[in-house]
Structures are given as C-alpha cells and as structure tokens.
Amino acid sequence: xxxxxxxxxxxxxxxxxxxxxxxxxxxxxxxxxxxxxxxxxxxxxxxxxxxxxxxxxxxxxxxxxxxxxxxxxxxxxx
Length: 78
What we know:
By secondary structure, the chain is mainly alpha-helical. It has helices at about 20-40, 40-55, 60-75; strands at about 1-5, 15-20. It has one domain (about 1-75). A two-stranded antiparallel sheet has the order 1-2.
C-alpha cells in the first residue's frame, strides 16, 4: 500500500489516501473531490477550477497525470 495526500493529487487538503495502485488512489481522490464539491468547500472548488483549466490542454493533462503516476510509483510501500 502507498499513501498520497489530497494536496499531492491536486487537491486542497492533507487528507491521506492509501491504495495499491495509482488507479485506485486516483479514484479515492476523485470520490473525495466529489464530496468536497457537494459540500461547496471553497479551497477544493478552487483546486477543481485549476484542474479544469489544466484539462483544456490534453497534452498538459497527460503530462500531469504521468508525473503523478511516477510520484506514486516512487513512494515506499507502507
């Protein structure tokens, strides 16, 4: 299992997610983001707007995603 925070995954808080694969941790982060969106959490809404801007460029989004995957892969197992 590896751990990453919401901040490390482009979010706005220090909540930790733990998963075996990058896909699993990305899904946990996405679920957390949806919860924060429903709660209208201002810092998370700001982070979501920044991600939406990044998504305007498929190349930039792919690079960001690949960088996060590399960061996950480099983490030690807990």
